[in-house]
Amino acid sequence: MLDPAGPAARDVAGLWWGMFVVAVIVLVGVTVTWLAAMARRPPKLEDAREKRVARRWVVLGGVLLPAASIAVLLAFGIPAGYRLLPLPPAGEPPLRIDVTARQWRWEVRYPDSGAVLTNELRVPAGRPVDVHVHSLDVIHSFWVPRLGGKIDAVPGRTNVVRLHADGPGAFRGQCAEFCGTRHALMVLHVTALDAVAFTDWLEAAAR
């Protein structure tokens, strides 16, 4: 996830790093405040001034700080999530691939050609790919960390996630939802091919 190989994955990694930095700052601030509070003598809350100070800490630390954190997270998270949606791209139309999850394997189908793979996904580099995901038994979760976000595979419905590889390469996909005793072995081998190699492979697979 921290080594993105496509625009969608870069959005996810960028959001993660931002959240990590803010979390470290908050952790340090809370730790310093806690140590300072432990070092001083407890105030007498009967004093009106001490009551005002205590009330100010409650408002700042318990209301304003969480509200500001959530607002900043939404300001960056909503646009990042929006870019992960299967919206019409400005350039080449996305390739559709149907992925069916089951205990404990992935079935991959290319509806335009009829090609079928098991536990393997081949995509064209430099072109968006819309993966239509569904499940035949329990809830699974489709995730190729270096190429995009994750999406649940839910029985009875189809969810769509967009992947995009910058260039050729090999990537690992994984079921990210505990789905039974062999969940850890439910791995998807993803290969991004250049446009010519992918077209040649798809035509050969169709034959």
- Specify the structural class: alpha+beta
Q: CATH architecture of the largest domain, please?
A: Sandwich
Number of strands: 10
- Helix-residue proportion: 25-40%
CATH class of the largest domain: Mainly Beta
- Identify the CATH homologous superfamily of the largest domain: Cupredoxins -  blue copper proteins
Assign an overall shape.
elongated
Please give the order of strands in the largest beta sheet: 3-2-1-5-8
Largest sheet: 5 strands, mixed
Mean pLDDT: 88
Task: Outline the structure in words.
This protein folds into 2 domains: 7-83; 95-206, Immunoglobulin-like. It has 207 residues and is of the alpha+beta class. Helix content is 39%, strand content 28%. The two termini are 36 Å apart. It has helices spanning 7-39, 48-83, 195-206, and strands at residues 95-102, 105-110, 115-118, 120-124, 129-135, 140-143, 150-153, 159-163, 169-175, 187-193. The protein contains 3 helices and 10 strands, in the order H-H-E-E-E-E-E-E-E-E-E-E-H. A 5-stranded mixed sheet has the order 3-2-1-5-8. The radius of gyration is 24 Å and the shape is elongated.
